[in-house]
Amino acid sequence: MKAVVQLDNIHKTYSNGEVEVHAVRGINLTIESGEFVAIMGASGSGKSTLMNVLGCLDRPSKGRYLLDGVDTSDLDRNERADLRNQKLGFVFQGFNLLARTTALENVELPMLYNPSRIPSREKRKRALDALEIVGLAERADHLPNQLSGGQQQRVAIARALVNNPQILLADEPTGNLDSKTSVEVMGVFQKLNERGITIVMVTHELDIAKYCKRNLIVRDGLLVRDELVQDRSFSDRELQRIREEEAAAKLTQSA
Amino acid sequence: MRITATSVIALRALRRNKLRSILTALGIIIGVGAVIATVSIGNGAKNQVESQIASLGQNVITVFPGSTNTGGTRGGFGAASTLTIDDAEAIEREILGVVAVSAEVRDRQQILANGLNWNTTVMGESPGYLSVRAWDLAQGNMFTDADMRSTAKVAIIGQTVATELYPDVDPVGQTIRIRNLPFKVLGVLKPKGFSFFGSDQDDVVIVPTTSAMRRVARRQYLSSILIQAQSPEMMSRIQQDVADLLQQRRGDREPDFTVRNQLELAEAATATSKTMTVLLGSIAGVSLIVGGIGIMNIMLVSVTERTREIGIRLAIGAHDRDVRIQFLIEAMILSMLGGIFGVLIGIGASQVVSSQTGMPVLISTASVTGAVAFSAFVGIVFGFYPAHKAAKLDPIDALRFE
Questions:
Q1: Residue B261 lies in a domain
Q2: Domain membership of residue B391 as a residue range
Q3: In a domain, B137, yes or no
Q4: Which residue, A110, A116, A55, is CA-closest to A85?
Q5: ipTM score here?
Q6: In A19, A184, A227, B188, which residue has its Cα 20 to 30 A from B98's Cα atom?
């Protein structure tokens, strides 16, 4: 297996005026291609900082980060932007779709900033393919406010996929969704992972983390636990169970 | 490289906020409209003055008599009766670069013809007069040097005199009576309209200078001498030469003449309208800058409002430049659209002013292109700071922005 992410002794320090905050204090981590990792931790544990470093949105204060074999430490702002565009796909808690912009145009957005020019017909085709993967091809012309939360998050996932990234980074992707929709979205992630896409997500929900293959726990800026998920949840089974429960609820009601 | 895509994004953003975009552009529309209207009206006025000055003739230098001082009693300007036909002849003979000279005598007379009478200006002039004034005959011929020498009783008449005295007869060959002397009409002048000073230039009878001196005005001195220079560059030199020659002819006597240059008159006349144009134009220019500040204000609001959008764009791979260009293009589209509509409104406004007041307007392509270019420039200048602010946002902070 090839290492997609390799973190060597990563530190991140914020100086907030006079106070120095050590958000991450020496993390070593290797993530290989095809993994499905959940990073967990309480708020203030440093998991968001770690995620920002992984997403090349932030630079580590110390340490080395190899992304797909490329050392990201001495890249400038625009080079990191290109790296994010080419090798990373982002899914956020708040979906972060452009308002009053159709699902299709939202998905096309990363290709607009692709350093190599993509003809508009090709852009459209790739965006539609990505929407197809998340099961929203027929909603391509809908605006975000015409879509449910789960659908918006699936559009966001399609947007993250459209440049064929090495890793999908998801920051609390189910944080704004109800439990059933969360299971559906995790189903999308599981399906993508089966296709071989590497996924790293941050969550604070244990049951959501169980849909992943590997769980990391961060506390006080350090990696305190790293284990494979034993009793993994599968969204197909969970959805089936939820459907049965709903049906049962209706039965008892009608009885 | 991504300019087209970025322009599309900018246009979409403007379309999403139609009313706001229109109101923002309104500042520029009013500014550019005001610039175009004032400059057009100013140019029209200047143009009118210039054409009136030009109707006085091309490259004309005029010698006026000066004041007198007889035994301590000082006469006013023009009172001197010392400018003679010999002075005029000397100028024509001795000064280089002089194309034509006309010795002028003005008098006002009641004239009779065709059973009608009319009070008009009778002017004694040399045959070179038409050349000096750049004036042509509508019909007939000008009198000649021979007529000058023989103090012939011949005349040419202006259009106004022709229509007043000969409403339905061809005047050429007819006789008019001035001081009860018969003068034969040799020709009729083309219409020239009102002068810069407001007098009707066509209300005139022109006779040879010698005839005017002896038979009409009955005096031995001239009202003025008109001199036409070969080219505008020679005018100041000829002006000096004329002054020198006349002084030389007067020996030790105090100068009793003034030499005036047509350009001086033109400059004085156009200076006023130029001042007005500059004044009004700069007020309009200030309103353009105010419009620009309006654009900056709205763009700053827009950047704050769309912080999250900027964060998304930066996170998924937009460079600083992409964001900067996007906002710059938005500002430029606003100001250029404002400029284009402003030009249309300015043209419309100046046409309305022109039709309501009869003031001439002149819409120059220079002022139109200048106004549009300036409004685009305003867009860049006032759009730059907000665009820069947007481009420098940190993607993490921008994404967290509520």
A1: no
A2: 3-52+268-400
A3: yes
A4: A110
A5: 0.91
A6: B188
